[in-house]
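Fold this complex.
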Amino acid sequence: MRFLSNSALERLRDGAEAPDLAGTRYRLLDRIARGGMGVVYAAEDEKLQRRVALKVLDVPGTDGDLASRLIREARVLAALEHPGIVPVHDVGTLADGRVFYTMKFVEGQRLDKYIESVASIPDRLRIFLRICDAVAFAHARGVLHRDLKPANIMVGPFGEVLVMDWGLAKLLRGEVSNVECEADPDATVFEKPKPPAIASDATDISVVTGHGTVMGTPGYMSPEQARGDVELLDARSDTYSLGALLRFLLTGHPEVTSIANGRRLDKSLAAICAKSTAASPADRYPHVQELALDVSRYLDGLAVGAHQETVFEKVGRFYRRYRFFILLIAAYLAMRVLILLFLHR
Amino acid sequence: MQSGKDRFPLTRRSVIEAVRSIDAEERALALEALCAAYWKPVYKYVRWRWNRPAEAAQDLTQGFFAELLERELLDKFDSSKSRLRTYLRVCVDSFVMNEDKAGRRQKRGGNVLHVALDFAGAEEEFGATTMDPALIPSPESLEQFFEKEWVRSLFALAVEDLRELCLARERERTFHLFEAYDLEGNEKGSYEQLARDYGISVTDVTNALAWARREFRRIALDRLRELCGSEEEFQREARAAFGWDAK
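Structure:
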């Protein structure tokens, strides 16, 4: 038997990664990214002559957990037809036994990169409102995203905002009629810490994944999600993630921190973030629309529900909102005073 | 959904299940498959971790597989608690420690194992393995070492299967191209160079390599599936073997 050097092992690994697209309408172009489940490639749909993104599992087989998750993700996406949610085109199994789906190829930037070129707070808030629109639509269809974070939001060249990566999505009430698979509460991203097991004489106990395993991203994950209380998750869990996302857009950090990109966060916005990311779900906005409404009110210079203003704050906001008219009236009055003074000389 | 099942072979039975079979022949075949994949990692591990000379390591390797059969250690393996690879490594440690305690060292295994064990070749490979002599074996480094040698063994078996498949299908040239480009990794061996060497077009070279890689992947995964106790373990081991977690 031939000895395989370390470099031969690496070449074999690299060579074995590419999916076998024989018999499909797709031609492989470039590798875009690797995720927890598999790889996303750019491919060409040769029939329609357009570029698509092809997400494919690493391991073959259609009956494993990951295959079920990928198929469910494709079906969830298919059920969520919304301009803010990436559309899926096709799902299937490749000749090498790997499950794949294709979706719109989004040319753009991840949100965390994109906002580096967006300095204005109102512009950032408008992007946030478009994210809220897509998430609220998904909630209305009974789907929780469960992994909202800047890396899962893409902004296209025309400013279009797309919520990506619905791999951890959970169906709330089975309202999406054409999604047949049940949500998988055992899917793993981060695992709950377990007490160390006592090794028996000849076995090494590895971490066992099981019911209640934690999924999500630290910093953006709600406390109930971090505890693995899958059954307790509802729209307010995504609201928490959106609050963390809003805080990231405003300060550069998803959590409250003393370092805030040198920016002093407006009290109303800070209150919106705080209410969205309250530890108890009962203290958060019950629906994404209400969070979006508060942000819209802030943009319109109105009082937000999350913050009880003092008289001075009310006056200040009134001044900011009607600054043009106030200055116009002030200028008019000043002119009248000057004219009167001139006439009485 | 598009169907690829006609080209994707059905799963072979796991050695873990087969080794518990009441059929003696099936048990023997399962142990043979297990031994073929693990004897080299075990031998090199005993050489490195336990710092045993070649001859002692050979005896211990054969003794270990004999004990695996005699004491039915695989019956105790629970794939929901551990990977087979880790379980076997821990079993090797226990076995070597027990042998030390008992002060035993005997020639054996010759009538138990039906797999040809090329210890001279394994020793040569062990000598070629680059290791930091100052590296103090930690649990992580032991696991990494064993994993790497296990992957090397698994891939080498898959390459051998691929060679046989190419011979059976009269695609020797395909295997030579795969050998030259993917196994030897000759820097000068570009697709164009290979096409010139074999008097074929570059497209033929890329098609042949694509087929060989696809088959290699399929064979390696089939062998791996056979060596795992559950679908979950297979998924984890496939990710480890192909380095998908690290990429």
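Chain B touches chain A through 58 residues (CB under 8 Å).
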